[in-house]
Amino acid sequence: MIKAAFFDIDGTLVSLETHRIPQSAHRALELLRQKGVRLFICSGRPYCAIDNLEGEKFDGFITVNGGICSIDGKTILKRPIPQSDMDSWNSFLKNSSTDCFFITEDRVYMNRRSKAAESFIDLLHFITPKVAGLDELSGTPIYQMVGLFTEEYDSEIIQALPGCRMTRWHPTFSDIIPADSDKSHGMRAILDYLGIGADECIAFGDGTNDLGMLRYAGTSVAMGGCCREVAQASDYITGSPDEDGILNALKHYSII
């Protein structure tokens, strides 16, 4: 019996085409609530940048790819990037043209304004961050970064961040999070808090930053249009958000 459902936002709950939650997904969420299923967001976005849920209510939030987790308004997990990595990254950026977003507990910053940064903001309808360097943010815990670089630079970048991992879900940028953190860690914290087993939850995702979540969930659903790695990590492949993917998957499993 499914007792909890976890949803990525961009490309899963929210269409990347319309930047809206399809009516079918709104209906699916309501039917899950009627069944008594606890609903959770599991996103790479920070809480301050979750502005596209159109009034839908959730029992808790896993944000910045597992770095901060809350349930019923109570924070139960925080896992920032190691300070030694932030010091190393600060030195790297001072000698590089790399564009980067820094995410604290309640704010988003970027190291410079650029065409790449504006493209990222436009793609996700993301908030426009304040410009600030890491020297200005010294002593402030950073829970996630978004590096605007293509895959060919991954190996060079990660050498400067030995305590981190990269989760790429777009050709032009990658999420950077602590090495011992991903969405599955947030799920585990919430499920343990509630006394719910992994086999009693379902998770929906579309990007490689969802892999931990999809592999941990008892039932995992990949959205249409996902890459092969995400599809292989999932129990079922449904349609895209615009193809009523969430509603149809829940019907497939007779959950609603």
Explain the layout of strands and helices.
Elements: E1 4-7, H1 23-34, E2 38-42, E3 60-63, E4 68-71, E5 74-78, H2 83-94, E6 99-103, E7 108-110, H3 115-124, E8 130-131, E9 144-148, H4 154-159, E10 164-170, E11 173-178, H5 183-194, E12 201-205, H6 211-216, E13 219-222, H7 228-232, E14 236-237, H8 245-252
Parallel strand pairs: 1-2, 1-12, 2-3, 7-8, 12-13, 13-14
Antiparallel strand pairs: 3-4, 4-5, 6-7, 6-9, 9-11, 10-11
Helix pairs in contact: 1-8
Key phrases:
256 residues, alpha/beta, 8-stranded mixed sheet, 6-stranded mixed sheet, 8 helices, 28% helix, 24% strand
Describe the structure.
The protein has 256 residues and is an alpha/beta fold. It has eight helices and 14 strands. It has helices at 23-34, 83-94, 115-124, 154-159, 183-194, 211-216, 228-232, 245-252; strands spanning 4-7, 38-42, 60-63, 68-71, 74-78, 99-103, 108-110, 130-131, 144-148, 164-170, 173-178, 201-205, 219-222, 236-237. An eight-stranded mixed β-sheet has the order 5-4-3-2-1-12-13-14. Strands 8-7-6-9-11-10 form a six-stranded mixed β-sheet, covered by helices on one side. The longest helix has 12 residues, at 23-34. The chain is globular and about 55 Å long. The chain starts with a strand and ends with a helix.
